[in-house]
């Protein structure tokens, strides 16, 4: 009765980039990203999509994202920092 769907539903949404508001169809890929296609029924783009919009699904996962503040050390390495330390460092700039 509450079985998981073998294929996640496609979500009709809007591209967040340039401000035109192109319609996109997003289907979760099961790995934290999504397969993005242009929405052929959307009046702003009529099934067309630019390179930024078509790469939107690649920006959804956490892999490669900065998840907490980092400060570069004098020798060049990055060290995790807390928000208070970062805001103090920025005030001194």
Tell me what the structure shows:
The protein starts with 10 loop residues before the first strand and ends with a helix. The protein is elongated, with a radius of gyration of 19 Å. The chain has helices spanning 51-54, 83-92; strands spanning 11-14, 23-28, 34-38, 70-72, 78-80. The chain is 15% helix and 23% strand. By secondary structure, the chain is α+β, with helices and mostly antiparallel strands. Strands 1-2-3 form a 3-stranded antiparallel sheet, with no helix packed on it.
Short description:
The protein contains two helices and five strands. It has 93 residues and is an alpha+beta fold. The strands form two sheets. The protein has a three-stranded antiparallel sheet, with no helix packed on it.
How do the helices and strands line up, and which of them pair or pack?
Layout: E1 11-14, E2 23-28, E3 34-38, H1 51-54, E4 70-72, E5 78-80, H2 83-92
Antiparallel strand pairs: 1-2, 2-3, 4-5
Distance N terminus to C terminus? 59 Å
Query: In total, how many beta strands?
Result: 5
Q: Give unreliable regions as ranges.
A: none
| SSE pattern | EEEHEEH
Number of helices: 2
Counting helices, strands and paired strands, the structural category is alpha+beta
- The strands making up the biggest β-sheet line up spatially as 1-2-3
Which outline best applies? elongated
What value does the average pLDDT take?
A: 87
State the helicity in percent bands.
10-25%
Rounded radius of gyration (Å): 19 Å
Major sheet: size, sense and barrel closure? 3 strands, antiparallel
Strand-residue proportion: 15-25%
